[in-house]
Design brief:
alpha/beta, Glucose Oxidase, domain 1, 8 strands, 46% helix
Length: 348
């Protein structure tokens, strides 16, 4: 947000306009030339948080260290919102916290208020340590990701793989066995091609929330999600777990991947699940709606920090709602009321 504010108020270029006109990589290249101070801030951000991204606990995920397009698109979101200031967000969070503590404290006696204070201190400490541990874990994954990509680069240089990233389709044991001369097969490119095809099938599959198998796992068992009933798809009200009170009537913006269109402009961020790498999207969302998750999931925690109405754990959400659909999200009741099942631009 601070980098976006610096670019928005710059007199050297009209950066908000340029960010909308240029491709993300071209925009960042222009910033590095014409706005060196902001470019240094971007480099410092990537150096510190470059491993924090959507799907950060998968070694095959492309992070900001390899591709900074996601960062450029978030800057574009923030530059269009001059009201987004870190100090104001922190102030509002403190005010909400104090007000909530005061409301609870009014109903308690002196002894229980002291107990509440101790419990809150313990909870804040635990959450802080949890999030610090998660960031440390993310950085550790980044270290191993770099190691495997370096191995992939060596294998590609030797002609054993077509691309350094193909190493992600090999198991650790296969890499070690090949290097030590005890591999069952030395055709690494053939293995990668087989895995590519197999994983393409995985990506296309619609999986249930829970898989039950009997006997040999890959014989006679189905992993397909059961079809969503016609009645469920036509339901006017969907129910989940409310995570932060407040009601917002807006259109849904379904985002599944960092390469999707990320401009929210107050729309309701709608997705299957989130992890810490989704956090930069939240400040420009009018609400948060997630198919999976609980009151302690990442999306719920960040929504509460920012004061954004949120509902999580809505069964079959993405099989029911459509991108652009207008709804009312009620974070207190945990409901989503649908006003048009089909977006305006798709109606007859």
């Amino acid at each position: 947000m601070r980098i976006a504010a610096k670019l928005r108020t710059s007199t050297r270029q009209d950066w908000p306009t340029l960010s909308a006109e240029l491709e993300p990589s071209e925009f960042l290249a222009r910033v590095s030339v014409d706005e060196p101070s902001a470019a240094r801030d971007i480099e410092a951000y990537v150096s510190r948080y470059g491993d924090r991204t959507m799907g950060e606990l998968k070694l095959e995920t492309i992070t900001l260290r390899e591709d900074r397009d996601f960062l450029a698109r978030i800057l574009d979101n923030y530059m269009s919102r001059p009201d987004l200031k870190p100090q104001d967000i922190q102030r509002r969070e403190r005010e909400r916290r104090r007000a909530a503590e005061a409301r609870v404290g009014e109903r308690l006696g002196r002894i229980n208020r002291a107990r509440l204070s101790r419990a809150l201190d313990s909870a804040r400490s635990a959450v802080k340590h949890r999030e610090n541990m998660r960031l440390a874990r993310t950085r550790l994954f980044g270290l191993f990701r770099a190691i495997y990509l370096a191995i992939g680069a060596r294998l590609a240089e030797a002609g054993e793989l077509e691309s350094p990233r193909d190493v992600m389709y090999l198991t650790r044991e296969e890499i070690l066995a090949w290097s030590e001369g005890r591999a069952v097969t030395t055709d690494l490119s053939g293995l990668v091609a087989l895995r590519h095809a197999e994983f393409d099938g995985y990506r296309a599959a619609k999986l249930p929330h829970r898989i039950v198998t009997r006997g040999v796992v890959h014989v006679g068992n189905s992993f397909e999600a059961p079809p969503v009933s016609a009645d469920a798809k036509l339901a006017n009200v969907l129910r989940g777990t409310g995570c932060y009170a407040g009601a917002v009537t807006e259109r849904l913006k379904v985002i599944m991947d960092p390469t999707d269109e990320l401009r929210l402009d107050g729309q309701i961020l709608t997705t299957l699940r989130t992890d810490p790498g989704w956090a930069p999207l939240f400040p420009t969302a009018g609400g948060v709606l997630v198919e999976r998750g609980s009151t302690l999931s990442h999306s719920a925690v960040v929504a509460r920090e920012l004061g954004i109405p949120a509902v999580v754990g809505v069964p079959d959400l993405l099989a029911i709602v459509r991108d652009g659909e207008r709804v009312t999200l009620d974070g207190a009741a945990g409901t989503v009321t649908r006003h048009d099942a089909i977006p305006d631009d798709e109606e007859e």
